[in-house]
Amino acid sequence: MKLMPCPLNGPRNITEFTYGGELTPMPDPLACTDAEWADHVFNKTNPAGIVREWWLHNASSYWFIAERDTVTDTILRTLDPGEIFKTRIDFAPPQTTPSQENPA
Amino acid sequence: MPFSLLRYGLSSEPRIVPDFPPPPPLRDAYDVVIIGGGGHGVATAYYLAKRHGITNVAILEKGYLGGGNTARNTAVIRSNYLTPESVKFYIASVELFRGLSNEFDFNIMYSERGQLTLAHTDGAVRAFRQRAEVNRHLGARSEMLDRQQIKELVPRLNLDTPHQPVLAGLWHIDGATARHDAVAWGYARGAVARGVDFHPLTEAEDFLVEKNRVTAIKTNRGTIKCGCVVQAVAGASAILLNKLGIRAPIHTYPLQAMVTQPVKPFLTPLVSSSALHCYIQQTGRGEILIGGGSDPYPLYSSRATIDLKEGLLAHALEMFPFLANAKLMRQWAGITDMTPDYSPIMGLSPIDNYYLDAGWGTYGFKATPICGLTMAELIASGGKVPELIRPFSLDRFSRFHQINEMGATAASH
């Protein structure tokens, strides 16, 4: 069984974790164009090499960041999100009335 | 044919006819360069030469003919999808598959056994009803079966799978299998006989782009100029797209499969269960072929993992408990390029003369003939996208017009 060195729980079986996608900067949903938002939602770099991505430890609901090599299947480093995100991100409430809101 | 066979049988010296010529020298320029010498690439070259008379074509293959996912898929052919766009497309593919052995004068061992997909939940039953109706409306043969009918069709199947019993089944009469290598060989032989150059051990390493057109391709054997380029590289799709700076929603995952030792014939249809993430079929050699869902995280490595195998086999044994004593003989993995809506990305790219055949995920083999036909039409018309593949364009994601086929996978979600 492959081990994932979780920053919170230490080394655990990788089956206890869920892959959460590449770490990419999110554009401002209210200011960006539809094309920019679609690019953020769908498009991936998907490199054959080192990638920085989100992972979740299912049992403790703990999200963290891992650096992984997608060719050799090795985990190079894991870190708490607090090491990257130094300030709190507050999402502004939507500028539309509830009837115009798109839940998706 | 029978007379030549008779002559061959009576001759004292066995006649040696090479199926495939040795690789030709790499020319300086080609009208069309196809990157990827798998089923899709050689089928595209075949139809370019046969239907459009375009033979100044090079196929660049970094390994050998049909050595990638063409050799690693589990050779399922079917058209029982969910959306009309996909059903139409795969019906056209099944039609072409049926005629391939005659067309090639080479047996692809097409075997129409039907495919049975099991529903274990009310939600799955509803989705299957919808699929059966959409299929029938467009001309694919699919119908709902109840438990008794399933029992008669596959007597060995355990309908009371411990986790969730089987409620109903989607019976797809057009479901079939074929020898996947033979499909690639047949297309390649036909293409090369008509003047196409097949270059094994030739890797596309970089591109020269001028005025939004690819003018030349750098390979490990030298640089070649090109009129237009098609990429048909399955698991390596994102690697080539990244070299050209084309953004695409492709995630690359391994997909593992395995076969047991051969046993007596007991299973004619292909049987799959998406609730159990598992599909099973018996090959012509008697082996039980077991396939399942993709690996849990993206990877460009075809290594094996024991945990995925254990989970997959546990589910296979729920369906066919007597297989518990069978020994596994081989296992392997292919690298699949998954898209968010489980539909392919075909047609135009942001670069004018660069055409895409990517994002096939787990559906690539069954689309081989129609993919070759439509990509050849696209190239021959200089970039006019055929109606059949228009819904699968790369820009559907920026328009939020996805073609959702996640529910139509045999097992992989």
Number of domains of chain B: 2
Q: What is the end-to-end distance of chain B?
A: 46 Å
Average pLDDT of chain A works out at 89
Q: Please provide the ordered H/E string of secondary-structure elements of chain B.
A: HEHEHEHEHEHEEHEEEEHEEEEHEEEH
Instruction: Please state roughly what percent of the residues of chain B sit in beta strands, choosing from under 5%, 5-15%, 15-25%, 25-35%, 35-45% or over 45%.
Output: 15-25%
Care to describe what's here?
The complex is a heterodimer of chains A (104) and B (413). By secondary structure, chain A is mainly β. Chain A has a single domain, classed as Folate-binding fold (2-Layer Sandwich), CATH 3.30.2270.10. Chain A contains 1 helix and 6 strands; from the N terminus they run βββαβββ. Chain A has one helix spanning 34-42, and strands spanning 3-6, 10-13, 17-22, 50-57, 62-69, 74-79. Chain A is globular, with a radius of gyration of 17 Å. With 413 residues, chain B is of the alpha/beta class. Chain B folds into 2 domains: 25-73 and 181-250 and 341-408, FAD/NAD(P)-binding domain (3-Layer(bba) Sandwich), CATH 3.50.50; 113-174 and 251-338, 2-Layer Sandwich (D-Amino Acid Oxidase, Chain A, domain 2), CATH 3.30.9. Helix content of chain B is 29%, strand content 25%. Chain B contains 10 helices and 18 strands. In chain B, strands 1, 2, 8, 9, 10, 11, 17 and 18 form an 8-stranded mixed sheet that branches. In chain B, strands 5-6-4-13-14-15-12-16 form an 8-stranded mixed sheet. In chain B, helix 2 links the parallel strand 1 and strand 2. The radius of gyration of chain B is 22 Å and the shape is globular. The model of chain B has no long low-confidence stretch (mean pLDDT 95). The interface between A and B is medium-sized, with 23 and 25 residues.
